[in-house]
Every structure is written in C-alpha cells, then in structure tokens.
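Feature request, filed as a ticket because there's no other form

It would be nice if the structure record came with a short human-readable summary line next to the tokens. Right now we just get the raw output. Example of a typical job, pasted below so the devs can see what we mean:
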Amino acid sequence: MAFLYNNHVIRINQTHLEPYHIKVHTEGLKVKGSNFTLEGFPFLILSGTMHYFRIPRPYWRDRLKKLKAGGFNTLTTHIPWSHHEPEKGRFHFTGNLDLLSFISMASQMGLWVILCPGPYIGSDLDLGGLPSWLLRDPKMKLRTMYKGFRVAVNSYFDQLIPRIEEMQYSRGGPIIAMQVENEYGSYHLDKKYMSFIKRALVKRKIDVLLMTADRGIQLKKGHLKHVLATVHMKDLKKETYSQLSSIQGLSPILMMVYTANSFDTWGSLRNFGDPHVLMENIREMFKLRFSFNFYMFHGGTNFGFMGGAEYLKNYTPVVTNYDYGGLLTENGDYTSEYTTFREYFQSVIESVVPLPPYDTKKSDYKPVILSHFISLWSVLPYMDERFRDLKGQQEQMADSSVEWEGKSGQRHPGPHLSFVLLSSLVLLLCGKPAPKSLPATVGGAPPTDGLPVFTSPSLVFNVLIPLLLILSLFVAFRFGDNGDQPIKSKKPLSMEQLPVNQNSGQSYGYILYETTIFTGGILTSKGHVRDRGQVFLNDKYIGILDYSHDQLSIVIHGYQAYNTLRILVENQGRLAYGQDMNKERKGLTGDIYLNKSPLRKFTIYSLEMKSKFMERKLPHIWKVINEKFQGPAFYLGFLRIDGSPKDTFIKLEGWSKGVVFVNRKNLGRYWKLGPQDTLYLPGPWLNSGTNEIILFEEIEPGTEIQFTDYAQLVCTNLQIVSSGHLLDAGASRQKMFVSPVILEGGSDWRLLGINPVV
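Raw output as currently delivered:
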C-alpha cells in the first residue's frame, strides 16, 4: 500500500488485482486490520459513481472507459426501485435498465463493482428511488418494518437479487461489495429495519462484503453489527474517525461519498465547489490510506421526471442537469479536474492506465421553428378511449365501458375487455353464449342482470361459475385499471390514488382537475396543492397555488349559467430524503375551498405524458401558429439532420416552463427561472433525416428552439468585471461569458457560453 518514506509517497502497485488478471476467485474483498484485502493482498478502493439510468445506453461503454482511464479501479452504482418496478408487480430490466449488461461492461473495462440495491438509494431521485405506488396505502410508513413496506420490499428483492447473485465475486463476477440501504442514520424511524434489509440480502445468497453508509454525525444510528460502516461526507473531521473507531475498532476507512459539490435546484444559483480543496483532501486520503468513492464521477441527466426535491427552508426541486460537479460533464466531456485527478493517480499508482477515449462529437444544429400547436384544452376530449377514432367515429365505443361509484364517490370505468375474456371462458366451460358487452349500471352497483343463463343440471355450472363471474366482475369494476381516461370523483384524488397504471396510481408529470362553479369568491388550497397548480376559469389563467401561495381571488365577469374551473397541478419531484417522505403524495392532496366551502364533483385527467400518450393522445388536429397562445399547449416542429446525428443541447430562449420530447423521448423539464438554460439531447436519440420535437409549454411560448454544442448554466460566486467580457471562474472548472439578465426575484448573471477547459 501507499505509505510515507522520507516525506515521499511510495507508489501503490495493484496491477495484479485487476479483474482480467484474477482468473480464479478464491477470497473476495475482506477487512483485515486497517486494510481492505482482495485475494489476501492489500487493496485500496478508488471508486467513482455513475448511474446507468442517467446515461443513454449507447454511451455506457464510453463513460466506463473514461472511469478506468482516469485511474479508478471500481465502479459504484445505485439501483432505483422506482425504475425497475414502476407499476406494482411489473418489472423492467431491459434497455436503459439492463443492469446486468452495465455491470458486465464494467468488468470488461477492468473495473470492480460496488452495488447499492436499496431499497432506498437517495441519489436525489423522486422519493429517493422508491416507487410512488407505495403511497397508495394511506398508512404507509416507508423504510420501516410496516407490513405493507416489508411485503413490497420482499417482492422486489425476489425479482432483483437473483439477477445479481451470479455477478458476485464468489461466483466469478465483478461485484465485490454491496451497501445496505442508504444513510439510514438520518432517517432512523425503526431500529429493526436495517437488520431486516441485511437478512433480506443474506437469505437471497448475497455473500459479498456488506457495508452501511452515513454522514459522520449519524454513524451510530445507521450502523449494523458485523457490517462495515463507511462515511458520507464532504469534509474530513477528526471526530468522525473517533466515532468510527468506537463503533468497529481498527478498520479501513472508506469515504463512500466524497464530493466537493452538490446538485442544483430550480430558482437557485448554480453550486460550485473548490477543486483546490478537493485535490488537497484527495492527497491527504492517499497519505492516510483511505479508500474513497467519488460522487459523482459522472452525474448524467435527470431525463423525464426522475429528479427529486429537497426541503430546507423552502421546497426546491432538482433541475434536469445532474452534472453534480463530476469529473465528466453532463454529456460526458472531460473537465480540467479529470485531467488533474488522472495525473495525480498516475503519480501514486503503479498501473497500466489506458488512454482516455475522445470526447463525443457535438453539433449546433440550425434553429427549428415550431410552426404548429394544439392547446391542452383541445386534447382533453381525446383523453377518453371512446374518442380515439379521429375520423368522426367517436361514439363507436361509447357503450363498451360502464361506471361504478365507489365509497369515496370515485367513479370507476368497468373494463370491457376483462368481461369479454371472462365471458368467453364461461362459454368454453358451459357451452352457452356470452353477451358481447355489459348492460348499463343501475343505482351505481355492478350489473348482475343480462348474464348468461345456464341450463346445465350441474351445480358447478348453475351456481358456482355464475357466482365466480359476478365476483370477478365486481373485482374488475372495483380494482380495474382506468388507463389514462378521465376519472369522475366527488372529491379531489391525489396522483397516487388514481386507478391508472394497473392500479398503481400516477407517478410523475401533471394532473388536471376540472369542476363547475356558479359564483366567484376566494379560492383557498390550505396547503393541499403539491407542488405547483395553475388555476384557470373558463380557460383563462387566474394565478398560481403552491407552497407560497394558498389563496386566489376568483372574479366572474358577466352572466353565465356555469363556469369551468380547472387546476393544472405539476408534480415537480417528491422529496429525495427526510422523514417527511411518507407525506409526499402529489396533485390535490385534500379539499380545495371556494368561500370556505369545499368544491365537489371533479373530472380528473392523468397527464403523466408517457410515450403512449405522445403517440396516441395527441390527435392530428394541429393548428398553424398565427399568434401566440397563452396557456398550456403542445408545440410541434421538426429537426432535419444530414449524416450521422451528434450530441447537441436545446436552447429555449423565449420559452417559459415545460417539458421537451424528441422522437417521443422525454428530455426533461425546462424553466426560465434557471439555473439551467439548455437541455442535453444525446446523438443516439436522433435520427438521420427527420426528428419530431414536441414541447409542452405551460405558460407562454417562444417562436423557435435553438441548438448549441455546449451547456449553458448560471454560475455563482463570480467576480464580475463588466458585462460581456470573458472571465476566468477561478475555482470553477470552466470559462464563461456573462451578461445581466432579469430573473424572478431580482437581477442576476446568466452565462452566454460555457467551454470546458481540458
């Protein structure tokens, strides 16, 4: 190992511990005194974190090569439960979620792997990577021994752990360690919980080194006996080492999360760490023989709606860019810190470090004018499955579904397909015809008349099968999936309560509440709008209800028999950490009041904006833009590319707030509030030829979208000399052009360009 001799650091030689040099795996990662050992030899872990779900799959190999070329020997990655089981009982492990391929690829690059399977992983994700359908249970207690949570964890681990079991070191794979949960010391609502997670891993044949990870002051609360405690911290403190020693005696120290930076949030200036301090700490850790994991080596992007939020003094959602001050930029380019780290590692580590691959090519394509639009209000009629036929046959399926009113006043459409399949089964068993559709309901109860009449003398056919049929119909009506059709409900329902996504509720995006009012007055939310609600009266914008504003004045001009009140609520991201995660239901989480009376009889539209929504729900009735439309609307344009597509960044100057879809892939949110001014568009997601671009703009559109070959972000802590001059950011890793700009809440400085210095 590295040690001091005459004030010089002796170089570390670990070449014999590279994955491709160890042909037979006999003894995995162990703790022996103050050292880690691998195959009995001292081993210093030099790890970097990357998330496969934040990086386009075609770039996995490039990013892993850059990790290895930087001098690192280990990859750390987290597994988001919310991505792999987005709907209860439906699992996804392919495409960009092909975890096993990512791990195998890391091994091919000569990297060991530390895996963080959760179930909670934090990582600044929506609900810390937990699936939102857990919150359908009104009594849910996340990250505890609550039965509903334990059952869900066991079901998930039954699918996940067998997939990664054979990738462990003892089976010849690259996984040398696994982390038990994540920073539980800061949550600590159940003393038995961490032992449960450990048992859940061990009984599923996990035999690699297990570890916990906590910040210094929470080490004892998150610690497990006979499990290595590691540290999450941004600065080195003597008290932390004393606490570690008191917990587990003499042991190696692993900084499981070491970083000089943090994530960025909407409405805040950009976070920048001091790379000089970072490098000083790294040198000190080498001298003390500390292992460490750099979070993030490469942060990537919060594509879609995956980003979470934090609540310090105020609720603040995470931006789409997850750069996190990594050694690679959001799009995988090198930073000056990468070069500095690589040079230092080469000076202290005896190893064959491959040459870094070239950066990916980028392009600043010509601007695209978005020439057509369709308002959200015009899309609503097509939200009902009965209106899918765009050739005027909207009424064709009007009788193919019925409604049943539940205890809460919510009206559930009856699944026509379920009945047809079940009645077909009856036909096979009994030899009698089954009806082709359900009769209308009477009095809000599931229908029982109009069912097949059975003449078989068999008690089974005459009694049991009809009873089973009726029971199945009841279950179908009570628990059937509503798709994304509008839902009738007496009271507001949160996203999680909606009967969509195979009854798993709505996880992300927007939700629209529509009701009728007959008088004006004071509209009050009482804190029930999560997170940001735009209020419209007869399609006209009234104002915002959010964490800071819970009251609006509704003024009705002229006489109308009734008035349509709509509240478009955006889920801006559930809290990624903290004990309030159990309360993170989104949409309208309670009553909305007009003149102190709760509003009733809502039509609710789930606007999760998945790919099927973009394919089917946007009808071919786009209108040519003749003048700016005020209010939520979809905008359409086309980018034409000659030759091979390249990476680019979409610049949304003049646009207000919304989401960008390119070839039906959700790039993420934009907001003029900043600090993010551009959205990363990976080249592999583009086509040679025509590319469809759709923007969902909430407020007021621009006229075109521009493309640039670099990210544009707001910086902080700059010494401004004069507007328009090139400045060296000093402690930052980039050079920038700056100019004054007016943001909500005052003036600030907006970058006109950022060029990495390598």
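Something like this underneath would help us a lot:
The first strand starts at residue 4 and ends at 5.
The CA atoms of residues 484 and 606 lie 6 Å apart.
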